[in-house]
Amino acid sequence: MSGVFCLLLGGAFYLWYRRRQARLTVYRLEPYLKILEPIPLCGAPDVVWRRKGSSTLIVGDYKSRANHRIYESDIIQLSVYRFLLLHTQEKAVADYGYIHFNDGSRRRVKLLREKQISKLYERYRKVLAGNIEPSKVCRNEYCRHCSHRAICNKKN
């Protein structure tokens, strides 16, 4: 009898989970977004969701990595997409987004505010201009794929 109960409980959980997942509908897939003001940015979020019954937009990004760890760079990436949506769409944009993993799971993450993105951009410009030193990374393998490796003073 307990096996049947577990089966029923598992089925009920599955239906609840699928129903919960279905509350988001696709608004746009991989839209290329570009702005020049207040700061020049461009990007293409993997998906922009709209919650059913609401016009609020939610950014999402798919990750194919095996671990489900959320990195600071993931949050910055989604936050930039949110910034772009705020300045290109005439709809409200949620202050959170979703990281989707290849096993079908997703994690909700709180995104940076516009002011924080602007500060990161200003820091980036100062680093490129040579006015400040870039922050050191904790692992040298991050440098392998950096587009600024040729101009960086960090020794590998």
Automatic annotation (TrEMBL):
Which ranges carry the PD-(D/E)XK endonuclease-like domain? Answer: 17-153
Any one Gene Ontology BP term: DNA repair
Q: Which domain of life is it from?
A: Bacteria
Instruction: Spell out the InterPro entries in the cross-references.
Output: PDDEXK-like_dom_sf, PDDEXK_AddAB-type
Q: Which UniProt keywords apply?
A: ATP-binding, DNA damage, DNA repair, DNA-binding, Helicase, Hydrolase, Nucleotide-binding
**Which Pfam families does the protein's record reference?**
PDDEXK_1
Recall the GO molecular function terms of this protein's record.
ATP binding; DNA binding; helicase activity; hydrolase activity
The name of this protein is: PD-(D/E)XK nuclease superfamily protein
Q: What is the species listed in this Swiss-Prot or TrEMBL entry? A: Propionispora vibrioides
